[in-house]
Give the backbone structure.
Amino acid sequence: MSARTTFALALAGALLAACTAIAPPVEPTAIPPALGPQPTVEAAARPALQQSDDEIKAGIQQSLDLLARAYNQNSPALLEQAVDQTNLPFRRLIATRLETFQQSILAGGRYDYVVSKIVARRDYGFVVARVELWGVVFDWTFRQVDGRWVMSEPTEQQIGQQHKSETDHFVFYAYPWSDNVNLKIMELMEQARGRVLERLGRVPDQKPAVYIRPIFGVGGIASSNTLAYYDRDDRAGDRIVIYAPESYVFSYYDPAVGWEQTLLATLVHEYTHLVNHRSFTPLGRMSDWMVEGLAEYVSDSARADEVAQAVRSGAIIPIMDTSGRVYKQDLQHLTGLEKDVSLAYGLAASLVAYTAERHGGLEGFWKLVRAYDKAQNLDTALRQTFDVSYEQFDQGWREWLSKKYG
């Protein structure tokens, strides 16, 4: 597995309302320091509009060097120097990210950020810069504070008034700050709908609400590295929330793929949750592997490498944990796993694929879901639907995995 792939799997979390991915720690090759001029005292004293791209890049690189040292040395004090301390919600987001990182299996890895280009100059002195790390990129915003370029985002007052627009299939709520990408995100949401309709055969008639958020500090609290998520609130109304690609919450993408295709896969996953809940069986009455496995299956899960590695090393997560422990470490309780969460999503997708291939297509899968909904017992549901025991189903799945990935 490449360093790029490992890093992407490790960060792909909050993937969407509950798709956290953590991969084994791998220390990638450090990116060499950025080339180009260092900021002069005169450049730092001038406002952004009067500085060249190279001067701005040099100033931003200083902030990124502080960020890297903060991660490498676990230093909140260094982090404060790289972050806009006047924006309280944003400051809290970045500080929480460092705390979470130091508690993860990635702690101890070597971080080296490099600013590669200035993407855009925005209002209020903000600049969008492309930042590289381990083969993936981030489009982050910076601004000058007291003559220094620091990581920052506009405030809720600066992003403009939320506006509503309605299309044939969705009701969108967005902000002027992200008008440069709002239409593209709407197009991607339509593409996601089309793909889910093609795979599942039906979608709800009611138009879902979709919220496009350009910053962390507006709306509800989101986890770091969240592209989008499905918010299932049966009383207030469910919705899909999407973070714009230039927000710090959106985080990273593979430059060879682009943020559009990266986001599209996530939107297919999240819209599958919505369709599942509204048009098939409510999510709360399904097991975790059924819910997340279907969304991964429909969105063409990109976790095949992890699954293959687990199959070859004999590290398959069981469907049901029969150890008797209180906190189950199995696919039935996927969202409560303490480790190998990304792998669990890939294995859940493989369970849906196996069920569809060997037990009557997706209609066979839905028959199993309906039986499980009534019995709330997987063995009973399997016997009623396919006339096989849990042990037979589990053995068949493992043999299928061995043939496919062994």
